[in-house]
Design goal:
Number of domains: 3
Shape: globular
CATH superfamily of the largest domain: Periplasmic binding protein-like II
Strand content: 15-25%
Largest sheet: 5 strands, mixed
Number of strands: 12
Strand order of the largest sheet: 4-1-5-12-6
CATH class of the largest domain: Alpha Beta
Order of helices and strands: HHEEEHEHEEEEHEHEHEEHH
């Protein structure tokens, strides 16, 4: 009996001990919660205005981005900085919402029988002065000026998306854009492209060397002695593009070739004469490089439509308009107007 009483007393003492510790810890816990709550309220008091400003700025930025996003059906790439230009003729932008509206109304499927103002065409452009110029002012150049005149005659609005040349070609292949300009005709490209006849220009293919270097190219066979820089995915002429014996190096941006030639990492640059004369002049390399004697006829350049585009039905009427502009020398005047602004490159 005494053991039971003792046991009960011990249990009572233990219970009182744990109860007291629990109450103490509970008070400390409640005090800690109270302190954290006060700290959180103080944080909200000072941080909430900043958070509200950040949220407002983000929402405003999203609204502006949506409003001024360049026209594209799937994706929009910013400009390829391989070449720089400075002439503004015209540029048009359309938001994705506007293009969605156009597709819902099925404007792409309409057959053009007379001038109308509801045809919208998305064009992929790579920076390639003087034919295609992309800078902070927008899109311009000979090709854009020609498209502007075609648009005025047929009631077409052309929209542009900037991309490196290789990506522009890929966008055309996938049908992510409707059209591309200054496009050479090859069997591989004809698999995914409808070319618009006639061709509207042709450039000679030339080779540039650094002045003072002992590099002599009078015939095609002389090219085998040198390392030649070229733009990836560009077509120059069949013999050159298919010649696997040539020592060539491909880069994505034209500016890379200029610095490589200037640093004597390559011996020659291949290019389309008008474009590269302009390119060198705009980038300050006219006095450093010169053309070698050998040159090739080059290929004809066309406007081309993706076979996946719904504007394929417009191929003939656009081609007829180009033919009229060639016969009236309208295209010739546009080209000469731009070439008069560039500096010539001499040859040896």
């Amino acid at each position: 009996m005494e053991m039971d009483v003792l046991t009960l007393r011990m249990l009572s003492v233990k219970c009182n001990f744990y109860l007291a510790r629990y109450k103490k810890n509970g008070c400390m816990h409640n005090q800690r919660i109270k302190e954290l709550s006060q700290t959180f309220i103080l944080y909200l008091k000072f941080a909430m205005p900043i958070l509200l400003v950040l949220v407002c700025n983000i929402l405003s930025g999203l609204a502006l981005a949506k409003e001024y996003q360049p026209a594209t059906r799937l994706s929009g790439d910013y400009l390829n900085d391989s070449r720089d230009g400075a002439y503004l003729i015209n540029h048009n932008f359309a938001s994705n919402d506007e293009l969605k509206t156009l597709k819902k109304k099925d404007h792409y499927n309409q057959t053009i029988t007379q001038k109308q103002n509801n045809i919208h065409i998305l064009v992929a452009l790579a920076n390639w002065p003087p034919w295609k110029i992309i800078d902070q002012t927008g899109f311009s150049g000979i090709d854009v000026a020609i498209l502007k005149n075609i648009g005025m005659k047929l009631g077409i609005t052309f929209h542009y998306t900037a991309c490196p040349w290789k990506r522009c070609v890929e966008k055309l292949r996938k049908g992510e854009v409707d059209m591309i300009t200054s496009f050479s005709k090859t069997p591989e490209r004809q698999k995914f492209t409808e070319y618009i006849d006639p061709s509207y220009h042709q450039e000679k293919i030339v080779f540039y060397k650094k002045k003072g270097k002992k590099v002599s190219v009078k015939k095609y066979k002389n090219l085998y002695k040198y390392k030649i820089g070229k733009i990836h995915a560009s077509f120059y002429f069949e013999t050159f593009n298919s010649d696997i014996k040539l020592n060539t190096i491909s880069v994505a941006k034209g500016a890379q070739l200029l610095y490589m030639l200037d640093a004597e990492r390559i011996d020659l640059i291949v290019g389309h004469e008008i474009s590269h004369d302009c390119f060198l002049a705009l980038n300050g390399f006219s006095d450093k490089f010169e053309k070698v004697s050998y040159r090739a006829p080059g290929t004809h350049a066309y406007l081309a439509i993706s076979k996946k585009s719904k504007i394929v039905t417009m191929k003939k009427i656009i081609g007829d308009t180009i033919q009229q502009m060639l016969e009236s020398h309208e295209i010739k005047k546009i080209i000469h107007g731009f070439l008069n602004r560039t500096l010539p490159i001499g040859s040896n």
